[in-house]
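Hey team,

Filing this mostly as a record. A colleague (T.K.) asked me to run one chain through the structure pipeline before their review meeting, and I want the input and output archived in the tracker in case anyone asks later how it was produced. No errors, nothing strange. Just documentation.

Input sequence:
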Amino acid sequence: MKELVEVIAKALVDHPEAVRVQVEETENHVALRLSVDPADMGKVIGKQGRIAKALRTVVGAAAVKEKKRVTVEIV
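Output structure:
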């Protein structure tokens, strides 16, 4: 799932080299922390958080396959 978030985020931003994803995993929960260049923060969040919500939805759908709960935080 880390790779999925990286691919989507790198496609959205102007500075793809600054995209970092940190993973914290427990037994049935995965926390993904996405950090991007401060200039690209608005592109990842989107108007009224729509892009961030879509990103979380896609990652959540992928997580169903692994039977884990996933949260995506944009730092």
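Quick notes for T.K.: The mean pLDDT is 93. The first strand starts at residue 20 and ends at 25.
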